[in-house]
Each structure stands twice: as C-alpha cells, then as structure tokens.
Amino acid sequence: SAFLSPSDLESFTAHLQRSQRIVAVPGAGLSASSGLPTFRGAGGLWRNYNATSLATPGAFRSDPGLVWMFYSYRRHMSLNAKPNPAHYALAELARRKPEFLTLSQNVDGLSPRAGHPADQVKLLHGSLFDVKCEDESCGYIRRDDFDDPIVPALAIPADESSMAEQSKARPDQALQAAMARKAALIKGLDISDASIPIPTIPRSSLPHCPKCKTSLLRPGVVWFGEMLPEAVLSDIDAYFDEVDPKPQAEAGNKGHMQPKKVDLCLVIGTSSQVYPAAGYASQARSMGARVAVINTDPSDARDLQEGDWFFKGDAADIVPEILK
Ligand code: BJW
C-alpha cells in the first residue's frame, strides 16, 4: 500500500468516543488467535488442498465426501475453540453503541458465543452450524446443528490398520510416526495433516435431507459464485439506507432525506479480497466514515486514505486495546 497511516491511538480513541454509527468488517484473522486457520497465506492449506478451492459448489458436486470432511473438521475445530479477547471486545462495543453493526465473514460461531447481540452481527457467509439441502428448490434448512460429527461416517478415523501396515514396513520410525499421529488424533482430531489417512465416504453415508429425502445436506455457508443470504443483504441495505427524519424535517426538506452518516468502520483481520464483503468499507467511507484497519500484514490494508488508522498486529491484542 502506498500510504500507511499512523497507529495514532489518541486520535482513534477520541473519534471512537464521538462515534455512534460504527460498522466492523471482520475476517478470518479475528479468529486466528483462537486457533482457527485463515484462508489465504500460511495455514490456508487443508491437507493438500487450497482452502478456497473447497469452498465452491463445484467441489461439493464432484467430491461431496471430501468437502464434508473439510467442513466436519472445521465444525469440530470451531466447537472446540474459544472466543478470544477481540470477539469479547466487539460484543462489548455492541452493548455500548446500539448503532454498531458487525458484518462478519466468519462462519465459526465465535462472535455469537462471545455474547455479540444477534441483531448486531450479520453473518455474510452463513454458519458452519447451519445445514441445508443442496437442492435449493427443496429449501430445507436447519440451524444450530452442533452434532460432532454430524453423521457417524464423518467421525475421524483412528485408522489402526494403516498404522499397523506402516509399522510392519519400517518398524521404529513408522511406529513412532504412527504414535505421534494417533496422539494428535486423540488430542485435537487433526485431519488437516495430509499424512493422516481419511476414508472415501460413500454418498449413502453422507447427511441426507430429511425433507426431500433424495438430496444431500450441505453446510449452510456461502461458496464462491453463490448469493449471500437475502435477509442479511437486505438488513445491511436497510442499515445503510436508514434516515434520521428529525433534523431533516426541521430543515424542511422532507422529500430529500439523506441516510444517516456512518462515523467509523473497523476492518479486522481480513485480506479484503472477497466481495461484496470487501466493498462495505468503501461504502461506509462514502457515507462519511473514517476507517481503521487492524491486521498483522500491512499489505492487506487496502486503499488507506488520509485520516484512516492502521494498527499492525494480532487482532486479539489490538482490538481490545483500541476499544478500551
Ligand atoms: C490477522 C491475524 C491476526 C491473520 N490478527 N489479522 C467483485 C469483484 C470481483 C469478484 C467479485 C465481485 N463480486 C463478486 C465477485 C465474485 C466473488 C469474489 O469476491 N471473488 C474474489 C475472490 C475476486 N464473490 C462471490 O462469489 C460472493 N458471491 C457473490 O458475490 O454473489 C453474487 C455474484 C456471483 C457471481 C459473480 C458475481 C456476483 C460469495 C463469496 C463467498 C466467500 N466464501 C468464503 C467461504 C465461506 C465458507 C467457508 O468458511 O468455508 O468465505 S471464501 C473465504 O474468503 C471465506 C471468507 O469469509 C472469505 C474472506 O476471507 P478472509 O476472512 O479475508 O480471510 P483471509 O485468509 O483471506 O485473510 C485473513 C487476513 O487476516 C489476512 O489479511 C491476514 O493478514 C490477517 N490475519 N492472522 C489480525 N492474528
């Protein structure tokens, strides 16, 4: 980025205090210190797959078992992760500022679990704990499904047989590796390691839609090329379109009501590459907002302008610090 604004905490705090309408646009970096991997950069690989290549309708069509393994693993990881101080600080800001709205790209459930009021957090990319029929015309959706695993076939295999095979071939080394893997499985059930075998799951063992009984269930998340949830988009539009009737009525121009100004936009731990999420900061800016970017990587602070802030570091440290 050509221009990097200073991490001037004093001016930020002063602006925060007089701000009423605030939007936050968090991404995977918000949950990184809770131990959940991001999509791009280090940790963006799941086994040998690029995480974003599994987040497509095409990937699910061609290998639903593999894609379900990926999401089953992430459901498990998210359920076992804890919200970090940044999730709590945002939840607390929401209670302090009734016009604060979080537009979260995260599907991990950590913001709701940190007590972020539900009407003040919009889940742009859905939730790992919503499951829905892959056939849109069926329309079945089930929310808050925390079963882990969601079907027995998605249980993480402890794969005794392949470990036994390997220890026959090269007794010492292989056995040690197998023990380490097994320990990893027991500890965190980590099948993100490509050397840990996963089975090929027959379609019949994957979760099926209880309504139409023919199609598979799929994670209730938004994949590339798919529309964001309509209700979420319309709530966000309504927020940005909201008008303040009083002062304008007084001014006598009732016919030309301007939307309320947005004071501040917090862009937290996102590479700002995925739309429409990445566009909300500029939308807020066009409505008067000053922008603060919190990220470990300065090169992901896009289009910073004079008057913006950039705070470099772990969101779990910075966010509670600047929102204090
Ligand atoms: C830390 C940290 C720490 C690390 N502290 N920071 C306009 C222009 C061009 C293309 C399009 C456009 N409009 C639409 C499109 C197409 C497409 C798109 O945006 N493509 C771009 C990639 C070019 N968008 C869509 O398809 C969207 N649908 C749509 O627009 O429908 C209408 C339409 C359809 C077709 C054509 C046109 C219009 C849907 C997007 C859905 C995205 N889905 C995913 C998967 C969700 C399910 C799942 O979780 O598996 O959402 S992809 C993935 O990326 C996930 C994330 O929410 C999203 C954003 O990633 P995020 O959160 O930014 O993570 P990272 O890893 O990229 O970045 C982490 C950041 O944190 C980094 O900056 C680190 O430095 C930082 N960090 N540790 C602070 N501790």
TrEMBL record:
It holds the Pfam family SIR2. It comes from the Eukaryota. Residues 2-324 form the Deacetylase sirtuin-type domain. Signal peptide: none annotated. GO terms for cellular component: nucleus. GO terms for molecular function: histone deacetylase activity, NAD-dependent; metal ion binding; NAD+ binding; protein-malonyllysine demalonylase activity; protein-succinyllysine desuccinylase activity. Belongs to the sirtuin family. Class I subfamily. This is Deacetylase sirtuin-type domain-containing protein. It comes from Endocarpon pusillum (strain Z07020 / HMAS-L-300199). The lineage of its organism: Eukaryota, Fungi, Dikarya, Ascomycota, Pezizomycotina.
